[in-house]
Amino acid sequence: MPPAVVWFKRDLRVADHAPLVEAAERGPVVGLYVHEPEVLASPEWSPGHLAFIEDCLAELRARLASLGSILLVRHGAMPDTLDRLHDQWRFGELWSHEETGLAITYARDRRVAGWCRRRGVRWTERPQHGVVRPLASRDGWAGHWRRRMAPPPLPTPTSLTGPTADEMTFLAAEDVSASDVRGNAPNPMIDGQSGGETDANLVLHSFLHERGEHYQRAMSTPIEGWTACSRLSPHLAYGSLSIRTVHHATRDRIESLREEPNTGQWRRSLASYEKRLRWHCHFIQKLEDEPEIEFRNFNRAFDGLRQEDRSCWTTEEQRRFDAWVGGRTGYPLVDACMRCLDRTGWINFRMRAMLVSFAAYHLWLHWKPVAEHLATRFLDFEAGIHYSQCQMQSGVTGINTVRIYSPVKQAADQDPDGRFIRRWVPELADVPDEHIARPEEMPPLTQHMAGCLVGETYPAPVVDHETAYRAAKERIFDARGTSRARQEASRVYRRHGSRSRRTERR
Ligand SMILES: Cc1cc2nc3c(=O)[nH]c(=O)nc-3n(C[C@H](O)[C@H](O)[C@H](O)COP(=O)(O)OP(=O)(O)OC[C@H]3O[C@@H](n4cnc5c(N)ncnc54)[C@H](O)[C@@H]3O)c2cc1C
Fold first, then answer.
1. Radius of gyration (Cα) for the chain, nearest Å?
2. 46 in ligand 1 pocket by Cβ < 6 Å?
3. pLDDT of 10
4. Exposure winner among 107, 294, 398, 427, fewest CB in 10 A?
5. DSSP classification of residue 329
6. Does 218 contact ligand 1 (Cβ within 6 A)?
7. In this structure, are 498 and 364 located in the same domain?
């Protein structure tokens, strides 16, 4: 019997992997990962993502080999790559997790399904997390999620049957290396997290046992959040850890803390963390149910509110976008976050929300180019969460509270002594604390003494905060107030709204 193919996509692990377990129960298996040119050319893609994937693949390859099988890594379009493999050995079974991703991966899955039918290959997909396919109604969704999470994670198979040694050598000969795929593109995220199941489990353990106690309070600050947040997002995005594994580990830890005195803070933090694991799937479910949200406003009454087509942008719109992308808006916290992202691929939730809010309201830019740029900077890019959040923070869902973050107030609240700003915007290193959020207000002599000349060594604000804030507020509330926007909001809520109102307000 020819080995079945287990197609790894964004599930780069052997633990809690239903397709691998089920395929292995039936007979020999071979793992397959395909670097797809279409994905590599998408506007959301970054060489930083590839570096993380490479780590995951290296470990996956070693783990499958130690269990007795093999991981094939190919570079090519799908289903053509499957077709070539099928010419080499007539496999009859393809196994994978369901994927809720970009339109290109949805279209690719349909092509793969068609190919399987034509070739007589049976393709079995299993759910990857709490996303329900198809979902008839949002009512009762949280119950679905809990039922999915309830069973313990599946154990890693103790051994696998792979191809024969000769077949392995023959098949591995066509494998591609990372440099074949990456070309000359350097990885900009020099300080990005590394991938793989081992790292994922270490990060999980250190969060649950060492770092997470003050999560609830510290998650909003870019400095403390760096260690107090779980930092599991890239592992969840590429599946080097399953949500169910994290959910069970968190539950177990909360239970054991109940036995220990003075652990109230720990338990509150972990309870707050647990909710977010559900949000992960709640947001991806939106893309699953309405894939168009990658391209179109949730609430169609907001169409045309901002200019999406970059070829139609005015010079002013382009200037604002360039300043935001380059971390040169003249708003120190915004600039620090953008520069931190360039290098590390991570920033906490509050700062992400502020970055999009600043682009959408102060700079009045459409969420689509903003989302695409941030996707290339987020190591944890996850289409369903990302597009939903970018639209939410731009005010175009009609069902969420409008939040226009002031970058000056956020700096005062979240980085009062300017430690984060000084780290990422070295031009401001010697600016006194009282001016760190608004360096343009420094008197000329102070600017000289601080070695920061606003307009020369550090940009003047790209827009005036008060003027831009007032104009944006008026425009967004005018748009929200129309009867069409309200009707659309009801539709959006019925289709996507969390039945727990607090989640939607986020
Ligand atoms: C504009 C914007 C874009 C975002 N894009 C992404 C993205 O592409 N990928 C991504 O994983 N997260 C995204 N988020 C959500 C959130 O900011 C990150 O999940 C979080 O900062 C990742 O760090 P962490 O793992 O330490 O988070 P923790 O706070 O430790 O949370 C643990 C996990 O819960 C989930 N989670 C946490 N907050 C949210 C949330 N608000 N919505 C949905 N899931 C959540 C994530 O899977 C996260 O890994 C975005 C938020 C905003 C405002």
1. 24
2. no
3. 98
4. 107
5. S
6. no
7. yes
**CA–centroid distance, residue 262 to ligand 1 (Å):** 29
Q: What is the dihedral of CA 71, 75, 77, 81, to 10 degrees?
A: -50
Ligand 1 centroid–CA 142 distance in Å is: 18
Residues 216 and 324 in one domain: no
23-55, pLDDT tens digit by residue? 999 999 999 999 999 999 999 999 999 999 999
Report which residue type is found at 299: N
Kindly state whether residues 322 and 471 are assigned to the same domain: yes
Q: Is 65 helix (H, G, I), strand (E, B) or coil?
A: helix
Task: Please check whether residues 297 and 283 belong to one and the same domain.
Answer: no
Residue 332's CATH number: 1.10.579.10
Residues 298 and 331 in one domain: yes
Distance from the alpha carbon of residue 285 to the mean position of ligand 1, in angstroms: 15
- Model pLDDT, residue 503: 58
Residues 215 and 312 in one domain: no
Count the domains in the chain: 3
Q: Is 9 in the pocket of ligand 1 (CB under 6 A)?
A: no
pLDDT digits (tens, 9 = 90+) for 406-460: 999 999 999 999 999 999 999 999 999 999 999 999 999 999 999 999 999 999 9
Distance 233 CA to ligand 1 centre (A): 6
CATH of the domain at 271: 1.25.40.80
Amino acid (1-letter code) at residue 496: H
